[in-house]
Amino acid sequence: MLIRRAERFKASDVTDETLYLNRREFIAGGAAAVALGAYDVADAAAPPAGAPLKAERNEALSVKDAATKLESATTYNNFYEFGVNKDDPAREAHRLKTRPWTVKVEGLVHKPKTYDIDDLVRAFTLEERVYALRCVEAWSMVIPWIGVPLSALLKQVEPTSQAKFVEFTTLLDPAQFPGQKPGFFGGGLDWPYVEGLRLDEALHPLTLLTVGMYGQVLPNQNGAPIRVVVPWKYGFKSAKSIVRIRLVSEQPKTAWEKAAAQEYGFYSNVNPNVSHPRWSQATERRIGEFRRRPTLMFNGYADQVGSLYTGMDLKKYY
Ligand SMILES: Nc1nc2c(c(=O)[nH]1)N[C@H]1C(S)=C(S)[C@@H](COP(=O)(O)O)O[C@H]1N2
Ligand SMILES: [Mo]
Fold it and tell me: CA dist 146 to 31, 48, 53, 66, 275, Å?
């Protein structure tokens, strides 16, 4: 797998959008063996983080902003299973074995299904969308994510009429996630990391089940082999390295609600008018920029998602 080896990501290699684009052209021209929307898994002895992953950009669901440097997106992370510091994930994430990996989709569905990660990537058409992920700590990054609309997967399992919420669960394995070891300060979280969405939020076309970024298989520190990206919500709603998607009738208890409910609500829609108890959320620092920028309602997606919350008091349901 010459291409994979040559292309295996090295943060220092790719430092700006221009280089990134050239690189994509190179991949497009040289990777005849790599089918659109699927990497070659014939020789997947090693987890393919960094292998080229092609997908057509969905322009309608992409922002025009320049992407954050790949190096920043892969070295400044929140992934408390690896530690609470921003540089812990890049240092520790090699411990995570992303193959074999299955995702169980179960609960209130007519057709529960366990997907092997590679079958899942082959079964759906991958799209690339450029989304800003905005952290509750008031910084943001613009990342070209690759994945499948979560709705495509949910349609396959056929939620029952009782299903009202979707719960996402990250792998529980203290042997691979030092932050889950008893006695390790994992930010006070109760493992495994659990997140959730209302079913209509989960079915919204913007919600992306994500397997790659920057034209590559997702790096471990960004949630390999599969994570969620919900662009109109704060980053912690986008659970990483998930092993289970469960449809349920009651609002799931999320890891951050259990840890500090008054700071991290279930909805956590990006909202410049609702402050975090310890800081304002009116402006944000885009990683790589000097000047702070005003934060937009629903992270700029008010036209697309506003109707999901008609009549709701967003100060109460923060
Ligand atoms: N399992 C798990 N998922 C997680 C987290 C985590 O600690 N554990 N952190 C969240 C937070 S706070 C943010 S801001 C984003 C960061 O994603 P990124 O590192 O790919 O930018 O992941 C989210 N998903
Ligand atoms: Mo975050």
Answer: 17, 15, 8, 16, 31
